[in-house]
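Its record is set out here:
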Amino acid sequence: MNAIIPVSPINNLKTRLAEFLTLEERKHLLFNMLKDIIKALEGLNIYIISKDSEILNFCKLELKTNTIKEKGKGLNNALKQAFDIVKEDIIVVPADIPLIKRRNIEEIIRLKEDYDAIISPSRGGGTNLLYLKNSSLIEPRYEGFSFLKHLEEFKRKKINYYIYDSFYISIDINTPEDLGEILIHGENSHTKKYLESLNIKVEPKHSSAGRFYIYKVKK
């Protein structure tokens, strides 16, 4: 099986975290999330596609993955470029789902024997895992409620698909509050250890206004 991980350039990285983490901290957050994702994908042929040379060098030298220099604009075009290289037995995962587990991948490998496409939603209606038996099955339709868009494509083309519902895969990291999920659920992960090294803490919030408090303790 082949895995494709598209990664945004460092300068555009996790802008909703900008008031909580510096650009350098966000970069190292990304690198640690990638370490956790690569661990879950161990044994697959992994391709990182990005416009950012620093990211590509890190993935090639430190994570020992294949790399593709992104040429176009936008996530869907990046995936189409990757699909020109990797055409069959593909799993697409984003670079910000560090809670993904090896057992999730093992379950996908078993399920793909019976389905041509497998999809796992994010909490906000996005697509946090997409398996395609062949890259020509559908056009990637990321951005917005991509989960619903991909389902629409599956149904329109009468593709045999499976919805793989996973709490851990559903958690993508975009806001400071999302970091709390890593501190709560990310036992033994590189990402949790990195957040702890920044003295980031999480506390329960006893109200309906959010899930919990997330804050950074000054050293």
Remarks:
- The chain has two domains: 2-170, 176-216.
- The radius of gyration is 17 Å.
- The chain has a mean pLDDT of 94.
- Residues 137 and 196 are 42 Å apart (CA to CA).
